Automatic annotation (TrEMBL):
Pfam families: HET. This is Heterokaryon incompatibility protein 6 OR allele. Residues 1-48, 90-149 are annotated as: Disordered. Residues 224-369 form the Heterokaryon incompatibility domain. It comes from Lachnellula suecica. InterPro entries: HET (IPR010730), HetReg/Transcr_Mod (IPR052895). The lineage of its organism: Eukaryota, Fungi, Dikarya, Ascomycota, Pezizomycotina. Residues 119-131 have a biased composition (Basic and acidic residues). Transmembrane segments: none annotated.
Amino acid sequence: MATDTPSAMLDPRLLGEPVTTTLPTRRHDDDPDSEGEGSVGKRRKNVKQNLWKCKPCRDARKKCFPENRIWPQKCERCLQHRPEALECSEPQLNTRKRGKNLSKQNQQPTRRQSQSRSQSERPESRGRESSDDSESDGVPAQYDRPVRTTVVKNIKEEFPDSRLIPKIVQPIQPSPIREQRPASAYIPLKDGEFRILQLNPGRKEDKAVVCSFKTASIAEPVEYEAISYLWGGSDAKQQTSVDISLRDANGIVHPLKIRSNLHSALRNLRHPKDPKLFWVDALCINRSNGTEMNKQVAMKRDIFHKAANLCFWLGEDASYKTALNFIPQILDLTKVDELVKDDGAIDGWVAFVTLLKNVVFSRLWLVQEVAVARNVTLHSGQPAIHYGDFVDAVAMFVSFRADLILLFRRHKKKHEATERPEDNNG
């Protein structure tokens, strides 16, 4: 049975009449947080944030005026947009809420401020980017060990608990130089003891290396650094032997033969004025005593973990030095987009690829030593870089692989390290 329905109860669109929408406005007395005169500022802020906005203004986070307009009237921003007007839409209530205001001392720095602050701190944290022979007051300015760059997010520590540290299974490689170690210098060790090499001060140019031994306990060791290097190296010149001077407890100096690449590492890593303590397996372990050698090899995991720093020696190849000095530029996030396309940076990228091809990075014992060490630095001559920065630079290198391939091809450089097998298969 049909009934007469008043026209006021019908949808205006069914009657063919134009639809007009009146936007409700919010009154100050509706604010539940308003209490007296002290909350006027807070009340106005809430009113400002809860505007009715069209979709273009809401997406652009812009104000939509006039505030009390009636649809289909378009807002001023959509009408005045150039080169052509935007497609305005029916206003919707903006439900985006604003966070709590913080005082100036509690405000977090913005991304731009953080980058500028990191940019200003970067020269101090990379004190070893200068040339090999730069000195100040007779002491090389780049002697201090490099620290991790804070621009890139730090990598989570792999082994926070020493009980989880994997054992080092590096086999002891017998020295090709057969000689009897002086008994007065290699005093027998007790259980839980190991030798630390005390390296006398000297400059890089000084060929003479003088050292002695100190006995330490693995339970409470003194502060020392460990030295790791590639036995013999890939260069035939590194297979030669060099004499160093080993002083025993009675002050008697004994000549001792070591590999030339280890001799180069000792000359570069020593301090010019103060004695330094290092642990080197080729010197600190008496290899003529099989019983001691087996006990010391079993302690290598703890020796590397207790060291304040692991200095990984790459040699004195000119390309390695160039690569280590080039890594800070790769980590500059504000310029890396231009660096991968800069023709003037091709020499730095070629040196970095050469460093990646070093066979030392394919050795299992390198992974084991880096895993157990608390801090690792890479050294080539005087230039050095933190191992974490090297890992971050490799990640950046992989991210910009396509751009680097184009850069290498423009200069007709070999870029095997930038290509993958599928790139050559079409």
